[in-house]
Design brief:
Strand order of the largest sheet: 12-13-14-11-10-9-8-7-6-15-16-17
Number of helices: 12
Oligomer: single chain
Radius of gyration: 20 Å
């Protein structure tokens, strides 16, 4: 049953992916092919724009055991599990929640704390070493501290993180840290309170800022701030977000706007990586590329002299499928092997029907083996049925 990472990587076959992207709004043309992307309208070197997930370092975790359950047909090893613990949220962000709301899964059909812990333990025993708790909004779950405590005690788990909108995080974070939470991502799409209320359909901007400061004060380094960039909404604040990294250990992560059911995605709202980068470099010319892990979803940079860092998540214009190591367990117990894939496999139903761990492992392994080499292009994704983001998990 147990295999070793180098052996898995021997079977690795990089997907032959070549993607051309033309941003008509800016005149930027970029090509991502065989791990290299180039902008034909700037002076950056290939290293500046090279995608972060094209090099597989065979000895990165040499000797770590991994179950065949976690290795797909392209040799990708899945050691990162994202668990959505709730479909409910106390915000109504426009890129996440449809205008008329979402029909949520009835509570009895959601995973209980014990079911979450059982499945997480199964994944960790098979080689998962990082878990991220998502939602909806995970902090509104009443037993979130207990979930964190039980997960953090699992042997082999190296990182336990959370993605949150920050509304209630400031008062809950000290306890969550005591319970083993090791990393924090806070979503914030604008630095303007009035715009925050417009984009999220709720108030609370000052609470999110308070949560970012609280995470810094508690020693989280970096505190990751996720910003979905949308044209006409917050693209005028890009450099203001970079300024957050000057004095504090904040990692600002610019995320390309992605299509999900109900979020009225339109390519005109998309601000591409190359355009965001151009705006940043226009003001911060001393932006330097950092060394990325082969499985990073982000391209990582630092402005010279800044304490924090700046990252770009380029799911639409330069995908990073070749290095993907992520699986998703949804709040209703479905396993999703790709964020943009419609295919799901229920783990809740067989578990509640009495399936033992070996049977669950077979189900998981089959789903992982069916994972495709890469997700579809953004225009195809916009026309493909998928869940709203709030029911997948951020």
């Amino acid at each position: 049953m147990w295999r070793y990472l180098p052996r898995a990587l021997q079977s690795y076959r990089r997907a032959s992916i070549c993607q051309n992207v033309f941003n008509r709004g800016t005149g930027y043309y970029s090509m991502a092919c065989n791990g290299v992307s180039r902008s034909l309208n700037d002076s950056f070197t290939r290293d500046t724009y090279s995608t972060s997930c094209t090099k597989m370092v065979e000895d990165a975790t040499k000797g770590d055991p991994v179950s065949d359950m976690l290795v797909d047909s392209f040799g990708r090893l899945h050691t990162y599990l994202r668990i959505s613990v709730s479909e409910r949220c106390n915000l109504r962000c426009q890129y996440c929640m449809p205008d008329d709301g979402v029909e949520l899964t009835p509570s009895p059909e959601l995973l209980s704390k014990d079911e979450i812990v059982r499945l997480a333990n199964l994944f960790v025993n098979c080689g998962v070493n990082k878990i991220r708790l998502t939602g909806g909004e995970p902090t509104i779950r009443k037993d979130i501290e207990d979930i964190c405590l039980q997960l953090s005690e699992m042997k082999g788990l190296k990182t336990l993180s959370i993605t949150t909108n920050g509304l209630t995080l400031a008062r809950k974070l000290p306890k969550l840290k005591e319970c083993g939470l090791t990393a924090v991502n806070i979503s914030l799409d604008t630095l303007v309170p009035a715009k925050f209320e417009f984009m999220t359909r709720r108030r609370g901007h000052e609470k999110v800022i308070e949560s970012i400061d609280a995470a810094v004060d508690l020693g989280y380094d970096p505190v990751k701030v996720n910003c979905v960039v949308m044209r006409g909404f917050n693209d005028d604040e890009i450099c203001d977000f970079v300024e957050l990294t000057r004095e504090k250990p904040i990692n600002v992560r610019f995320i390309e706007f992605m299509p999900f059911d109900g979020n009225v995605w339109n390519v005109k709202k998309l601000v591409s990586y190359s355009e965001i980068m151009a705006r940043v470099v226009e003001k911060f010319s001393d932006l330097k590329r950092l060394n990325d892990d082969p499985t990073d979803t982000a391209k990582n940079f630092r402005v010279e002299g800044h304490r924090g860092t700046v990252s770009f998540i380029t799911s639409m214009t330069e995908h990073f499928c070749a290095g993907c190591n992520r699986l998703r367990l949804l709040a209703d117990g479905n396993l999703k092997v790709c964020l943009f894939g419609a295919a799901e496999e229920s783990l809740r139903d067989p578990m509640r029907s009495g399936a033992d761990d070996s049977e669950l492992m077979e189900i998981i392994g089959r789903a992982v083996k069916r994972k495709k080499a890469a997700h579809a292009g953004m225009f195809d994704l916009a026309n493909t049925a998928n869940r709203p983001m709030i029911r997948i998990g951020g």
